[in-house]
């Protein structure tokens, strides 16, 4: 019922048809319901697997289910609807125990192909980047997440931005999230920019906490003197921001969101990312 209600009130305006077939018998609500249910509950993660399961076991509930090719086209046409739905789930159902003044930030690579192969998919959202965690070059996108910290639980995403893989994490922080006031952000060393940190404090009373970064040209005696304190500080910051890595690992384990090698279009990539986010959260929210 939730999908039907939210589709009628908001989502239909993002995928409205201007043709004679503007009210298909097999509705968009049914397409989205099949996709989300089979992916999350039955753990079928590819569209062909989703369609096969629906065709074998859900035909009595969805008697007008199309062929796989037609189903795939319908899913991709709903890319903006899935994107908007994931945003609604994150904004409307924020858990009560989120800490509004403490945010964790990080990025997750979405890999469409290895760095050795030419990029030929969704060029509006993909290019060549480097994943420091895996020490590898790849073609794809980056999923940047800003998440509320929660004591004893996985952080809850507040905002998700998708950029080409080459986009620097610090640029996303400056462009989208630097205007938040009275906030403490925890990130890794890639976010280091002392001038930017000072502006955040002066303009928004917000702080950026990252592990201690070595100062270029610093005297060895000073570095050795401060080493113990810097290590303790870096350990403390890393411990606070570690849960967002656990959040990414949970998304990867549940939805294989990081592997997008089967994607063949921009709309397909949007569905791959935001459809999986929606599937991961819609059932955890309504079954909690």
Task: Write the topology of this structure.
Blueprint: H1 2-9, H2 28-41, H3 47-57, H4 68-77, H5 79-92, E1 98-114, E2 127-131, E3 136-150, E4 156-164, H6 169-177, E5 184-186, H7 194-204, E6 207-209, H8 220-255, H9 266-286
Parallel strand pairs: 1-5, 5-6
Antiparallel strand pairs: 1-3, 2-3, 3-4
Helix pairs in contact: 2-3, 2-9, 5-9
Overview of this protein structure:
The chain folds into 2 domains: 2-77, no CATH class; 97-261. Strand 5, helix 7 (194-204) and strand 6 form a beta-alpha-beta unit. It is 47% helix and 18% strand. Strands 1, 2, 3, 4, 5 and 6 form a 6-stranded mixed β-sheet that branches. Helix 2 (28-41) packs across helix 3, helix 2 packs across helix 9 and helix 5 runs parallel beside helix 9. The chain has helices spanning 2-9, 28-41, 47-57, 68-77, 79-92, 169-177, 194-204, 220-255, 266-286, and strands at residues 98-114, 127-131, 136-150, 156-164, 184-186, 207-209. It has 9 helices and 6 strands. The model has no long low-confidence stretch (mean pLDDT 90). It has 288 residues and is an alpha/beta fold. The chain is elongated and about 75 Å long.
